[in-house]
Amino acid sequence: MKFYFDSHKKNKILPTAYFQHEDVVGMAKDLIGKVLVTDFEGKKTSGIIVETEAYTGINDKAAHSYGGKRTARTEVMYQPGGVAYVYLCYGIHHLFNIVTNKKDIPQAILIRALQPLEGIDIMLQRRKKIKADYTLTRGPGSLAGALGLNRSHTGLLLGQKLIQVEDRGIVIPDSDIRCGARIGVAYAGADALLPYRFWADGNPYVSK
DNA sequence: CAAACGATTTTCT
DNA sequence: GAAAATCGTTTGG
Q1: Which chain B nucleotides are covered by protein, judged by CB under 7 A?
Q2: A1: exposed, middle or buried (C-beta count within 10 Å: 0-12, 13-18, 19+)?
Q3: Judging by beta carbons within 10 Å of its beta carbon (0-12, 13-18, 19+), is residue A201 exposed, middle or buried?
Q4: Of A6, A21, A140, A165, which sits with the fewest C-beta atoms within 10 Å of its C-beta?
Q5: Structural domains of chain A, with CATH
């Protein structure tokens, strides 16, 4: 995978307004190359987003909010874009999503893989690993574990101290961004085939 | 209140 | 490649 640093751009934290854009699929693609940062208990960890999936809400059979379903768990998806949605999957893994679009339009983007940047020692500790390898932040459950994300962070506004997405000027050429069907949503029938998954081609942290 | 089910990962054969 | 690990959420009786 090729990418280069554009020094003309300043590092900037993506503002809440960014996540309230209505095109959740376009945003999932745009987030490839942005940097996800967490800073819990003085432990800063971050990584380049290299794989995402869009969940388009009430018309998307794969989304938790399909059909406008509102439960205690999915309620956060109805908030205005820019907050975190972290839920437990298979009783083991915490999956980190970013709520998008306007209030009452329950869409979200699942972050599926990162290329680690800062705090790799802390990530190793959290993941109970001795040596860094590609499995450190490959897959949604793994990256959430490495960055210390869990259900208690649901509803947290991004861009504050604890969780941020930054544009650090890392540019991944459009020709290196691939799209395809989402993973693990076979139950969604035809919607499982929609090209809502995006990834940086050739990046070793992307799910196999 | 009981039971089934995951937007997964790791380990074992 | 198959199967276990493991529990909050959701649904149905």
Answers
A1: 6-10
A2: middle
A3: middle
A4: A6
A5: 4-200 (3.10.300.10)
What is d(CA A180, CA A197) in angstroms, rounded to the nearest whole number?
A: 5
Cβ A52 vs Cβ A196: under 8 Å: no
The answer to pTM > 0.85 is: yes
pLDDT tens sequence across A170-197: 999 999 999 999 999 999 999 999 999 9
* Residue A82 burial (10 A CB sphere; 0-12, 13-18, 19+): buried
The radius of gyration of chain A from alpha carbons, rounded to an integer in Å, stands at 16
Tell me the CA–C1' distance in angstroms for A151 and B8. Answer: 16
pLDDT single digits (tens) A129-167: 999 999 999 999 999 999 999 999 999 999 999 999 999
Gap between the Cα atoms of A47 and A90, Å rounded: 25
Signed CA dihedral, A125, A53, A29, A19: sign only = negative
CB A84, CB A98: distance < 8 Å: yes
